[in-house]
Write a structure and sequence with these properties.
The structure is a homodimer. The first copy, chain A, has about 450 residues and is mostly helical. In chain A, about 65% of the residues lie in helices and about 0% in strands. In chain A, strand 1 and strand 2 form a beta hairpin. Bound molecules: potassium ion (2 copies).
Chain lengths: ~450, ~450
């Protein structure tokens, strides 16, 4: 019986990955439901404990209760561990232990890892995982240290260390959780260049994905980047700059957002809010005060999201790039879809369409269901639905007021968004004898 | 000089088509600006005359002034002629005159027709055009006659004939214009089965496109339908039924829409409002009173639209079908995209993506611009922007209150929506030595 179940799981890495996620979420919910996780005098409903656990494990950051003022230090650590597991990848964590115990990593485990990191190349996975952990911990350590130094100006050293670690880890993992209370996120630091720049760098590093990070580190030796890395970096920077310019334009005179700030602060805030929808979720200004056009821009940036195999969500930068060049190829009457002088094979283009349409369908369905369950503006439900699916965590204020039905909808959106269409499909699909990654041979990663 | 200009036009049918459209719109605007087009004591601004002319020529039906109470009988006839030219196709009309004059139709003219009807088969175009005119006039005549008979119960015979012709032509051409005044559209006939059923049939016939109509007429002889016709008919009926069920579900208890109606009337209204977003634009209930989820459903139906080579807009039923089967193929790990046991060639799939993404981009851009120029809810601007681009004409009430900038945005959306991405691209593109229709060899029409 046990052996049968083991065989059933081993036969499908996506299924094991999905069930592993579910297990971690449930453990997280139970821990967060315990009184020890809460500040004195607080109590939490099961649905809210589940919502918080899903939001942390799926590194989203949407919150139904205020993290800073509602949970105890123990609760914060539970959230941070869930973020770390969900962000750096719980499969990577599992292998970390395996490596520490000098156990040989089995083919099955490597297949699971492959799914988790969205990597097509089976060889070198193990080496990659070791590096993933190294890079993630190094960046988190550096980020936490720098945040700690900065926070020491505002609070006692112990608290600064605690805040430094929490926000360093949370921001690198694109988790969107913060401890500053009252749903204010980082708004105290709107005029602080150090916090702004550090946050942006951590968001970018977390969102590029470990494959790109590894590629960047090896650049000194190889003097070349893979197509995948080039595309991920180009799209990331392009959207970052264009987004910041448009936000600056739309919000320059908005008295509730950028209006009262000096020119330099305006630029910092525009840069941060161009980056945070992809898919960090921290803010220094009130998202609900942004103009409608800006909120719509954020929805689009959230939907595009970050790069594959990263701590964030969305349809991914490479998917976006492939779609754009496919459209250009048709307009030019060309047979082949060409991206940075590489032909993209048909299968990859189809996969890009599939990811995009499927994601669009989920967001549309979520938005429509929230329209029915919540009494809120359309922009409000569209924004929250996209934020959940792309695991961003930005909110116009709807989430804390959600009905239970609404909470369940967002829980499903976050879960589906973090796992992605292919993992989900192969996890529940009756037949998966010919999973897509077996056909794959290209150099670029979609979804 | 004249010869050069003629050569320049002849070298690009899309360019000729686009400029022809512009010319007709300008003539229409000038005619509608004349005092003879207006009811006594009324005057119209140039921007409003232009808007009305574009709306009529692009068979949209969005109105900045109330058609029934603002324009004179002459003005109504101007609108109706523009609708007829824009709907049945001004190129087809041109050939109609050519045929009447027994002039030989040149290759150039046939190429223009080919573009206009989105037909890939150059041969048989002439025969098709003759049929197009026959079918269109026959259906319009039948529709007008039936409407006249019905309206004779409510008004004097002369007026009933006038109303019968106007609404028969307007509804078959998916134009969305009506004469009932006060922006009420057909709301007097909400409980009238005859008007509801007749309208739905005319909308469907107009929206299937002439290719499908011809195919249906020949069915008695051939006993088979082309893949294109099968797909167009299936998607049309499927969306019609599913849309009606969802509308019934969402609006059943809404006291401002279906709530007060009897069961049969509820069903009629649900059916009509499932069909009218694709892309007729007539209504019997107030669109702005619909629940948010229903309005969102209408936005989706409007975006999908009708079939290629018809009187309506949107990304088209066949495009939608190809995208769906492409996604299914990827999920199943299949190499080929299969639709009703026919493989769809890669080029067609890419064209479907292109049409969809381009349309999406235009609607998103329009929505964002309207968000800036208009002080209105997000659903309001999204709805109006989609309605304009898909040449539907449904409105939540924003259009009559538009700023001049907003009117210009909708004018551009209607124009781009009616011409479609490929005609537009080849009309303005510097190089079009390898236009797409030269490569085409498939059996299904996209866009
Ligand atoms: K996040
Ligand atoms: K219309």
């Amino acid at each position: 019986m046990y052996k049968q179940a083991k065989g059933w799981l081993a036969s499908s890495p996506p299924r094991a990955l999905t069930l592993g996620f579910v297990a971690i979420i449930l453990v997280g919910a139970i821990l967060l439901k315990l009184p020890i996780s809460l500040k004195d005098g607080q109590s939490i409903r099961w649905i809210d404990a589940l919502f918080t656990s899903v939001s942390a494990t799926c590194v989203t950051g949407l919150v139904v209760v205020d993290t800073g003022t509602f949970f105890s230090v123990f609760g914060h650590w539970v959230i941070l561990v869930l973020v770390q597991i969900g962000g750096v990848g719980f499969m990577t964590m599992g292998t970390l232990f395996a490596l520490f115990l000098r156990r040989k990593v089995s083919l099955k485990e490597r297949l699971i890892l492959q799914e988790s990191l969205n990597q097509n190349n089976l060889e070198g996975i193990i080496r990659l995982v070791r590096r993933v952990i190294n890079y993630a911990l190094t960046i988190e350590l550096a980020g936490s240290l720098l945040f700690t130094l900065r926070f020491m100006l505002d609070m006692p050293p112990g608290r600064a260390l605690y805040y430094g670690i929490f926000h360093g880890v949370s921001i690198f993992n694109n988790a969107g959780f913060d401890l500053f209370g009252d749903y204010r996120s980082m708004s105290n630091y709107i005029s602080d260049p150090f916090v702004n720049i550090l946050s942006i760098i951590l968001i970018i590093l977390g969102g590029l994905g470990f494959v790109v990070l590894a590629d960047l580190v090896e650049y000194r030796r190889n003097r070349r980047l893979s197509l995948h890395s080039k595309v991920a970096i180009c799209v990331t920077l392009l959207l970052f700059v264009v987004g910041a310019i448009v936000i600056l334009l739309f919000e320059f005179t908005n008295e509730k957002t950028l209006g009262p700030l000096g020119t330099a602060d305006k630029i910092f805030a525009a840069l941060l809010h161009s980056m945070t929808p992809r898919s960090a979720g921290i803010t220094t200004i009130d998202v609900s005060s942004l103009r409608q056009a800006t909120q719509f821009l954020l929805v689009i940036l959230m939907f595009i999201g970050v790069s594959p195999g990263s701590t964030g969500g969305g349809i991914k930068t490479t998917t976006f790039a492939v779609l754009i060049v496919a459209v250009l190829a048709v307009f030019r009457g060309r047979e082949d879809v060409v991206l940075l002088r590489h032909t993209i094979e048909r299968e990859r283009v189809y996969k890009a369409i599939t990811v995009t349409l499927f994601s669009f369908l989920i967001v549309v369905a979520g938005t429509m269901l929230l329209s029915v369950t919540e009494n809120h503006t359309f922009m409000g439900v569209l924004f929250e639905s996209t934020s959940a699916f792309a695991t961003v965590g930005l909110s116009t204020g709807l989430t804390p007021e959600l009905t239970d039905a609404g909470k369940l909808i967002l829980i499903l959106l976050m879960f589906m968004g973090r796992l992605g269409p292919f993992t989900l499909f192969y996890a529940v699909g009756p037949k998966h004898g010919r999973p897509l990654y077996r056909h794959a041979e290209g150099k670029i990663i979609i979804g």
